[in-house]
Specification:
The protein is built from eleven helices and ten strands. Strands 1, 2, 5, 6, 7, 8, 9 and 10 form an eight-stranded mixed beta sheet that branches. It is of the alpha/beta class. Helix 1 runs antiparallel to helix 3 (52-59) and helix 6 crosses helix 8.
Length: 306
């Protein structure tokens, strides 16, 4: 069985969409299992349905208002650079209402229900493909994987939404008596889950550089401090996921193919900034990169045969 794993990465998910489009449309890969974490969870259902044009249009056309019902920060653009700052008025309003988070993402929940229909859900469920989203159960300090095989339509859409809720900037969801948040807090690159579900070939799209070269500036405010802290934790989690995934794959005779972002397409502090022009560019970049990556791999195989 072949699996596709897509990591978390916010707006950088557009790059993953381009890579996946190449693998499905150009390479002709058929996936029995798809596992997504955070932004990866938004992509996998439509990829499994082979509705790539649709998810590309949706993914590359969203803006802040499509994601946030209460956006906790403001974005200042100077030339090609962007700086992100806390919107103190909105954050203060959240605290006065007794909210546990700086912002809310109910618009994203609405968007998921609007763009992934119950008819599409039923078609996908009948296909027999195992479509899995990753969520973090904060109440139990555990990671949970929610398969389409075990869910009805409403629950599955909710799990997709929950998988993407990057707290404290997005909604902390209470469900089944537990508090849930972004899947990337526990498993940003869920390779192990794909292998445990029986995959023997796993294509892994990781929305980070293979070798981290980003030097962080001194924190200027609470926002940059929080993002730097989250960057640190996310990188540690990602590398641990990859190490464990490699060990599990080796023990079970599975092969892994990695697709990293070849350059730093955006800083982590702006991965919650959704700009349609940038994301369209990143989608095309991912498609082009996957082509070069597979061309290079084929040339190496040819040289080895000779």
């Amino acid at each position: 069985m072949r699996a596709l794993v897509i990591s978390g990465g916010g707006s950088r998910g557009a790059f993953a969409g381009g890579v996946a489009q190449y693998l499905v449309e150009t390479m002709g890969f058929q996936y029995d299992i798809m596992v997504g974490s955070s932004t990866g969870s938004l992509l996998i259902s439509h990829l499994a349905l082979n509705k790539i044009r649709k998810i590309k249009q949706v993914f590359t056309s969203v803006d802040q208002s499509a994601i946030f019902s209460i956006c906790p920060f403001s974005v200042n653009t100077k030339g090609s650079s962007e700086t992100v700052h806390i919107n103190h008025a909105k954050v203060a309003g959240q605290f006065l209402r007794g909210s546990k988070t700086f912002g809310e993402s109910y618009n994203l929940r609405k968007l998921i229900f609007e763009t992934f229909t119950e008819e599409e859900f039923n078609t996908l469920k009948k296909s027999g493909k195992d479509i899995v989203v990753t969520v973090s159960n904060l109440s139990r300090n555990s990671v949970e994987y929610k398969s389409i095989k075990d869910c009805n339509y409403a629950n599955f859409c909710e799990w997709i939404w929950i998988s993407c809720n990057f707290i404290p900037f997005m909604t902390l969801v209470e469900k089944n008596g537990y508090e849930y948040a972004d899947g990337g807090f526990g498993s940003k690159v869920p390779i192990e889950e794909a292998v445990n579900r029986g995959a023997k070939i796993v294509d892994v799209i990781i929305l980070d550089n293979e070798v981290s070269r980003e030097n962080l500036h001194t924190s200027k405010n609470v926002f940059t401090l929080l993002t730097h802290l989250n960057m640190y934790m996310a990188e540690r989690i990602s590398r641990q996921n990859i190490r464990i995934g490699k060990l599990v794959a080796k023990s079970k005779g599975a092969s892994l193919n990695f697709y990293y972002t070849p350059v730093s397409i955006t800083s982590h502090s702006t991965s919650l900034v959704f700009d349609s022009k940038q994301m369209t560019k990143w989608w095309e970049m991912g498609f082009h990169y996957a082509g070069l990556r597979n061309q290079a791999a084929n040339e190496v195989k040819s040289e080895n045969k000779e």
